[in-house]
Design a protein that fits this description.
seven-stranded antiparallel sheet
Length: 154
């Protein structure tokens, strides 16, 4: 069953890089931080949380926390997080998290990366629309960022 258009963001980009290169850019926490704009403290490990400050100008005060859901080498990487949790005065821990999934597929020119973030319908109504809107735009930029990153850092 298809999720409602308010519950799910999906982006796809064809990368001129091998699956192993894209996998490394996604799952090495230091490389992820380079293109995503976050300084994560710990490596990604299934079932564990890592956190770090956003490095994007204007958002350096924001601490991003992700809990790794799945790491299926060179196929799928996913984590849970609180979308657009940018106000340090707000405790988001009581809210449901969204699931971010990265899926890699081989194509003749390299790798097709699909990014899906789902679960927005569970976010409190007071901030649901803004979280969806900000992350919709955010993922548009992030697929460009990873594309540039894997080309410039083969």
């Amino acid at each position: 069953m298809a999720a409602s258009s308010t519950d799910r963001i999906e982006k796809q980009v064809d990368l001129q890089a091998s699956i192993s290169r894209v996998w490394r850019a996604l799952t090495d926490h230091r490389e992820f931080g380079q293109w995503f704009g976050v300084n994560l403290e710990l490596p990604f490990r299934t079932g564990e949380m890592t956190r770090g400050n956003i490095t994007y100008p204007g958002y350096e005060h924001v601490v991003m926390e992700v809990t790794v859901n799945e790491m299926k080498p060179e196929e799928r990487f996913s984590f849970f997080w609180h979308p657009f949790a940018v106000d340090p005065a707000v405790d988001y821990s009581h809210e449901e998290q969204t699931l971010v999934e990265f899926t890699l597929d081989a194509i003749p020119t390299g790798t097709r990366l699909t990014v899906i973030e789902s679960g927005f319908d569970k976010i409190p109504a007071a901030r649901r629309d803004e979280a969806f809107r900000m992350n919709e735009g955010g993922w548009t930029e992030q697929v460009k960022n990873i594309e540039k990153y894997v080309i410039e850092s083969p």
